């Protein structure tokens, strides 16, 4: 295997024997095959849209499959060889339906791969993946810098597909323009052409597509569940039977809340589900009692200690310990061999039965602790006047956004230290599971600015990154300046491909001076990094004290 798609990759080089995430060489090879199938189906979708007369049902199925199959290959999503092989087989079926239409296609060699002849066994599907591994594709392109740009586009587009899959979960429909663009970019990424300029533009196009996906997801959340509002969330346990929900998918949580109504079961959020408490359509359920645990990387201990079943709706899942495997349930694109999977009918009966059989929490923890979530752009923009006034009076020196992923590495403490070392007249916005590096800080707990506004405002899941885009754009408009002229700095903690998509979105908007850490991605070559530094002043996180000085100087 050779996988370097995420920040935790071995020795900041690549996982070559087994993934740091636990992914086996076999699963990795199957995922390589699946991604070749995604590109092949995308080539057919591009050709089909060009003639414009293809059965809409076939395109709908291809859209759905593209998003879900891609999502299954993100870091910490699917460790089940059977599930990945099923996605490949569905892709082969789609490809054959397109082939029967007699379309003409770019990259005919890939689009016309005779998958049918190799899909009899999982071993054959793996073999194909080994033959199309990253080093082989890199050698075929023959230019490491171009391949690096191809990888940047690939990982960013994986993240955008995951966000689009979330939007589909909520809406049940696709934005056809977005899907057309996603398929066109996969088709471009299928090419071995070492076209530096074209691949750089392609990466920025991924960022621009992802901006539209995030906007769609943002409106889908608000349309289905109401506008998020600042809401204190109980962070301590309540006596009684319990179910824990992790991942990002709010539609799944809503379905579980409906099915558990009146059953005497308390529902808790975990990790990236925490912002769920801010939605009127979810917080109206009194049995959504609070949050349990912290970020995804602590799940092995936290799930083991939870006295009820656990549902993981989307990323990030880790290969479970025996201590809780029997009460773990996956959904959607998530999969682990031997773990029960809730189907698309969202029938939670087995989860509910198990929760009722278990004891739950023996007593309510007192005193209770609370953390406020819900500073979505809809809640922050009404405060824009206060923010601008505070900036103009000199009462607010800078706004610092700390977003992205959390993870196990000790050097992610950079983000905690940065938040704690920033002067007291700075406002800290958090996003994604990186928030966990900030919200548990005793030093920042309950801190306020001179005008009484909270010093730390959490804008939501990484899925809510659109909030940062809206707030920055609106503040720039109100102050009649460019985004880069705002007293705003960004520090991104990246790990997986959703974070890559968000980074490309920010770059495509022309946002400069982003600090990226805790280390730079292994797939970025020195030459490509030079281009990104020159064009966007993208820089690695450094020494906290020095970075605080530079941030306060607007650098
Ligand atoms: Fe975190 Fe995981 Fe949301 Fe990521 S839970 S690390 S950017 O998958 O998706 O923020
Ligand atoms: Fe390694 Fe990350 Fe790939 Fe897992 S997803 S195999 S940790 S690079």
TrEMBL record:
One of its GO terms (biological process) is response to hydrogen peroxide. GO terms for molecular function: hydroxylamine reductase activity; iron-sulfur cluster binding; metal ion binding; peroxidase activity. The keyword Metal-binding applies. InterPro entries: HCP/CODH, Hydroxylam_reduct. Keywords: Cytoplasm, Iron, Iron-sulfur, Metal-binding, Oxidoreductase. GO terms for cellular component: cytoplasm. The keyword Nucleotide-binding does not apply. This is Hydroxylamine reductase. It comes from Nitzschia inconspicua.
């Amino acid at each position: 295997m050779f996988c370097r798609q995420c920040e935790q990759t071995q020795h900041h080089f690549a996982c070559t024997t087994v993934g740091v995430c636990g992914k086996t060489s076999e699963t990795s090879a199957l995922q390589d095959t699946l991604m070749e199938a995604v590109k092949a189906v995308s080539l057919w979708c591009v050709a089909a849209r060009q003639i414009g007369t293809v059965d809409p049902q076939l395109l709908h199925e291809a859209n759905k499959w593209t998003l879900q199959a891609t999502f299954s290959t993100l870091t910490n999503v699917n460790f089940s060889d059977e599930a990945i092989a099923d996605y490949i087989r569905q892709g082969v079926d789609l490809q054959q339906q397109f082939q029967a239409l007699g379309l003409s296609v770019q990259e005919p060699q890939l689009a016309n791969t005779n998958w049918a002849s190799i899909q009899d066994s999982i071993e054959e599907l793996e073999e194909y993946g080994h033959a199309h591994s990253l080093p082989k594709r890199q050698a075929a392109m023959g230019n490491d810098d171009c391949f690096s740009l191809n990888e940047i586009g690939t990982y960013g587009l994986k993240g955008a597909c995951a966000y689009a899959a979330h939007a589909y979960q909520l809406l049940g429909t696709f934005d056809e323009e977005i899907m057309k663009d996603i398929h066109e970019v996969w088709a471009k990424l299928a090419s071995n052409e070492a076209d530096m300029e074209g691949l750089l533009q392609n990466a920025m196009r991924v960022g621009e597509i992802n901006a539209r996906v995030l906007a769609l997801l943002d409106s889908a959340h608000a349309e289905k569940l109401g506008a998020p509002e600042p809401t204190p969330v109980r962070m301590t346990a309540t006596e009684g039977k319990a179910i824990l929900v992790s991942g990002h998918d709010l539609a799944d949580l809503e379905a579980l809340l409906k099915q558990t109504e009146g059953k005497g079961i308390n529902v808790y959020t975990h990790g990236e589900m925490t912002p769920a408490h801010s939605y009127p359509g979810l917080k109206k359920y009194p049995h959504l009692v609070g949050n349990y645990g912290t970020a995804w990387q602590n799940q092995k201990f936290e799930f083991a200690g939870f006295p009820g079943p656990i549902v993981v709706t989307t990323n990030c899942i880790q290969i479970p310990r025996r201590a809780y495997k029997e009460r773990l349930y996956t959904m959607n694109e998530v999969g682990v061999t031997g773990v029960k999977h809730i189907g698309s009918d969202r029938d939670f009966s087995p989860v509910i039965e198990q929760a009722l059989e278990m004891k739950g929490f023996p007593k309510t923890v007192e005193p209770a602790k609370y953390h406020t979530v819900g500073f979505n752009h809809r809640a922050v923009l009404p405060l824009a006047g206060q923010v601008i006034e505070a900036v103009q009076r000199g009462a607010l020196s800078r706004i610092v956004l700390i977003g992205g992923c959390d993870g196990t590495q000790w050097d992610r403490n950079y983000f905690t230290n940065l938040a704690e070392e920033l002067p007291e007249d700075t406002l800290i916005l958090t996003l994604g599971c990186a928030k966990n590096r900030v919200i548990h800080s005793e030093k920042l707990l309950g801190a306020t600015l001179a005008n009484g506004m909270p010093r730390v405002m959490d804008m939501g899941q990484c899925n809510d990154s659109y909030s940062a885009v809206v707030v920055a754009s609106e503040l720039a408009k109100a102050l009649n300046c460019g985004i880069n002229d705002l007293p705003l700095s960004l520090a991104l903690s990246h790990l997986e491909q959703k974070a890559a998509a968000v980074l490309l979105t920010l770059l495509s908007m022309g946002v400069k001076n982003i600090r990226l850490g805790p280390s730079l991605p292994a797939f970025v070559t020195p030459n490509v990094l030079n281009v990104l530094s020159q064009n966007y002043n993208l820089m690695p996180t450094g020494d906290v004290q020095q970075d605080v000085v530079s941030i306060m100087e607007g650098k």
